[in-house]
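Dig into my protein:

:::
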Amino acid sequence: MIVGEDLGTVPQYVPRMMKRHGIRRMSVVQYELTPEHVGKPPKESMASINTHDMPTFAGFWNGDDVGERLAQGLLDERGAAEERERRVKMRAALAKFLAARGLLSEEASRPAAVLEAVLRFLASSDAEMVLVNLEDLWLEREPVNRPGLPERSWRRRMRVPLEQLRSDLLRMVNGEQKTNDVGEEDRGPAQARHA
């Protein structure tokens, strides 16, 4: 399976050509989330919360990226204030969306509870594959990659060794994906691709 990055300023013909050539698209929660809308991953896609160029889930939830963009001169004070206000609305929209689907209790706004609910949503979606950023599992706030800041990118080790990583969320994602594969004629590869 080949997945193409169709995010950002991509010409309109690119998604059509990707589909024509059997290249899967990306569906990224942080990219598609607005104060009014939560995108649902389509079929023939790879779903994720973020990418390596985006804030971690906890960093996004807490708005850490807004302060970083302000420090880099990518936002001014007014723009940062507007973005923080927008982020509050985005968090509320996501929590409401997840609660409406029975994935999050109404009062739950803890990042860990929202993360689990988002992963359950992605895992039960139509997406063929779910990509999980391992650092999201321990609610890392500091991104590993900071576009435009090479001196601060890809410089640190993971804070949690793989041997100690709590992987119950990964097992849940895999289990949800397998449930969605029920009824497919060729279950073996479908189960393997979600491991």
Q: What stands out?
A: The chain is about 45% helix and 5% strand. The chain has one domain: 13-193. The longest strand covers residues 25-28.
